[in-house]
């Protein structure tokens, strides 16, 4: 119990709130890595999941399902730290590139799979009715399938962002900043208060992300779709 109180006491030190190693600066760095990786993930996985999920018939649909499941399983099997080290060795770009590669690879599966599954689960009757009204395939996807699939899509986005925030601590292993600096540097100095403080900050950031997505869910998803999702 004393160790827990000492860890919380770490936040009360004035040195923790100023300078390059202060909590505000490290938090901004961590958010920058995380949100950049999340934006890249959304740009890659969300459109791909929507397009592949929209395919319903024939060999293209079967190939799309196989592609989503196999790529997601392969990405989940990748060791994040090992991928980071490999990226550091192989890339000659800026320091930010090696950390983005494993974060994006980690976050793509939940977004891709949930988006694909969300669109696929839309009832065929809704789609047929929309097509019967003269809607094009793109209009059916954006006006019918996307709103109905939104609960699962938001779940995938939330899972991906929380995973990114939790894993972005590995940026400290390649000399970058972020909240991982407290954990890595604390371990090298055997400063357990710093390690615990960094871990607490990452946990709080993940919890705040959960709360933010809960608010987004209530705002973005229509009441009818929410009731439907709760009943299923």
What is the radius of gyration? 21 Å
Run of helices and strands: HHHHHHHHHH
User: How would you state the average pLDDT, rounded?
Assistant: 84
Find the structural class using helix and strand composition.
Answer: mainly alpha
- Give the oligomeric state of the chains in this entry, treating copies of one chain as homo and distinct chains as hetero: single chain
**How large is the count of helical segments?**
10
| DSSP summary, beta strand count | 0
Which percent range fits the helix content? over 70%
Strand content: under 5%
What is the distance, rounded to the nearest whole angstrom, between the alpha carbons of the first and last residues?
43 Å
List low-confidence stretches.
Answer: none
* Main sheet characteristics: none
Shape: elongated
Report on the architecture of this protein.
By secondary structure, the protein is mainly α. Helix content is 79%, strand content 0%. The chain is built from 10 helices and no strands. The chain has helices spanning 2-9, 23-54, 58-76, 80-90, 96-120, 124-132, 137-167, 180-189, 192-220, 223-231. Helix 6 (124-132) packs across helix 7. 33% of the residues are buried. The model has no long low-confidence stretch (mean pLDDT 84).
